[in-house]
Structures are given as structure tokens and as C-alpha cells.
Amino acid sequence: MTNARKFLEVKDLKTQFNTPEGTVYAVNGVSFDLKEGETLAVVGESGCGKSVTMMSIMRLIQIPPGKIVGGEVVFRDTDLLQLSEEAMEQIRGREIAMIFQDPMTSLNPVLTVGKQITETLRTHTPMTQEQCRARAGALLELVGIPDPIKRLDDYPHQFSGGMRQRVMIAMSLACTPSLLIADEPTTALDVTIQAQIIELVKELKKNVGMAMIWITHDLGIVAGLADRVIVMYAGYVVEEAIVDDLYENTLHPYTLALLQALPRADRRRDQSLKSIKGSPPNLLVEPRGCPFAPRCEFVREKCIAENPALVNVETNHKVACWVDVKTGALR
Predict the structure, then answer these.
(1) C-alpha distances in angstroms, 270 versus 225, 258, 266?
(2) pLDDT of the residue at 321
(3) Helix axes 161-172, 129-142, angle to 10 degrees
(4) Among 120, 19, 12, 119, which residue's Cα sits nearest to residue 62?
């Protein structure tokens, strides 16, 4: 993966929402890159800006109240934020596809799944109606739906939750995109179906050769899924590392707290799960110091006064923190 070419670079992305209560600072200067064929996990609590970041990349933020106020999203040497809506529509679905959290709200309840899959194909390919239907059936078969041609004529409510998510994956793969963004696609599913969907996506990624961004609040599923991880908090990237290094050499107090709150098979009976004290910050207040400072056990005066930048502190490992969590001393 180290020799793969970077084909997505997000630079200092900022997205805000104007509401009656004030400005919501949802994404505050997020930067990261993605290489061809790589899987990047984006981890953090609900409301930390994961989904808004990806919706900004796809140019799916509703304007108003939302607005991308700064940054660049360079995909194959083109800044997506500078494209017209017509040009962006040619990229969505064909080059970059997205799987959303809840397939029941993402699928149109009054259209058959076959109609919805073939619509993507008709938009982006010169296929005939018969070719589109054949391709749609092949996609349903690819994601493990039995009797696929017959199921093309069924409606979303006739599928179980896990099967609906498989339909969403089939739709996203219709035009063989080079990047698939999965926004917590297993959140609404039980753990057995979650495992099946994760294994399915891993297998499809390997066979198709696409890059993937997997958004999740669960660090437990990241280890066997991702090559690299970025951890977000309050609209900032606070840590970025290769997946094994993140677990073995955690550098940010927030990442450490997330790992300590994770159920483990090797945890002793007398060891209880450790919760993160306090609550996420109010994003209506423009950030000043480190946003995690009020909840951090390593907090120092400098943390309250100044927000640290995300910098390389070790090879392929970035962190935004004034404190060395191993020693408790300021960096």
C-alpha cells in the first residue's frame, strides 16, 4: 500500500451550518489523503463531524443551512469543490459512491430495487434496458441475495434489514467506483448481520480493487477492516495512524479513552468498562483551546489556551495533543 498513488487529498476542509441558534462549527480544518486500493477508517463519537466531512466531499451538504466555507477536495488532480453541480453529478455514483446508514430511508419505498439499481446504470452508462437489468441481477447475486433476477421486482419493504443493506451495496457498486464511502452501514443491524456485511464488503473490495472510507463510532470493527485510521473529535482530526500502530501505540487521550471503553474478551471480571466523563463540546461555540480539554485526564493550562495542530510525532503517526500520554509531560 505504501507505493500506491494518492488519488484523494482533503486539505483544510471546513463546513458550517447557520441555524437560528447560531453557527454550528461542524468540520474545522480536516485534512487527510487516501491511496488507491486503501481502506481508511474514520472513527469518533456521534456528532464529531465524520458524516458531515464525507457529505462535504460528495458535495451533498444542503445549502442553506450548510456551507463549505474553506478547503480543497482534490480527487484525481481535480478540486471537487470547484466543479459545477452537473460535473459533480457525473462523479457521484460513477467514480465515488456512498452507502448510507439506514437503507430503509435511503431506498425509495415506491420503486422496485431493480428500478433503483438500473437508474444508476442508465445515468452513467450507455447500457440498454435489458443490459441494465442483467447487470442489476448480477449485482444482487454478487452481494449474496438469493434468486436475484426475481428479487429485482420486489420493493424495499419486502427485504430484511440486512438484505436492504446488501441492496444498497449493490447499488453503490453498479458503476464499479474507484472510491466507496460507507457511512456506518451496519449501525442499524444486529451483530450477526453486522459481521456478515463487514465480511461481504471486505471481500468485494478485494475483488473490485476499489479504495474505501469506512465511517464508524466503533473501534472494535476497525482492526480487521482498515489499513489506516483517523480519529475525529468536535470537527477536528486528533490522531492518524496505521491501524496496528493506533492500537499498540495510542498517542491521543481521546483515542485512549475510546479504547478503554471498548469491551474486550481478555478483560478480567474485576475490570469494569471505563466511560469518557463529560459530554462532547457545544459546536455552536467557536473552538479556542483543545476541544477535548474539559474531558481529558491529562489536561494542562496550555490545552485550555491553545488548540494543538495535527503534526507528525512518529513515522506515519500524527497527533494533535500537547501532552505525551505515556509520560504525562508536555511535548
Answers:
(1) 30, 19, 12
(2) 94
(3) 130
(4) 19
Residue pointed to by grid coordinates 420493493? 155
- Cα 323 to chain center, whole Å? 27
Q: Decide the pairing of beta strands 236-242 and 317-319.
A: antiparallel
Distance in angstroms (rounded) separating the CA atoms of residues 307 and 301: 11
**Cβ-Cβ contacts under 8 Å for 105 (sequence gap 6 or more):** none
Report DSSP letters for 82-104, one per residue.
GS-HHHHHHHBTTTEEEE-S-HH
Instruction: Take residue 319 and report the three cell numbers written for it.
Output: 497527533
Question: Whole-prediction pTM value?
Answer: 0.86
Amino acid at the residue 317: H
The whole-angstrom separation of Cα 152 and Cα 93 is 19
- Give the cell for residue 123: 445515468
Identify which of 44, 39, 34 has the alpha carbon closest to the alpha carbon of residue 224: 39
- List the alpha helices (DSSP H) in 236-313: 243-248, 253-260, 301-305
Cα separation, 242 vs 2, whole angstroms: 11
Give the three-state DSSP class for 192.
Answer: helix
Write the CA distances from 271 to 173, 218, 268, 277, 278, integer angstroms.
43, 20, 5, 17, 21
19 pairs with which residues across the strands? Answer: 22
* 191-208 and 161-172 helices, crossing angle to 10°: 20
Average pLDDT over residues 302-328: 89
Identify the pLDDT of residue 194.
75
Region 204-233: what's the mean pLDDT? 85
One-letter amino acid of 3: N
Q: List, for residues 134-181, the tens digit of each pLDDT value.
A: 989 988 888 888 899 999 999 998 888 788 888 888 888 887 888 989
| Spatial separation of the C-alpha atoms in residues 163 and 148, rounded to whole Å | 11
Average pLDDT, the chain: 86
Q: Which amino acid is at 126?
A: P
pLDDT value for 270: 58
The label of the residue with cell 509531560 reads 329
DSSP assigned state of 323 = B
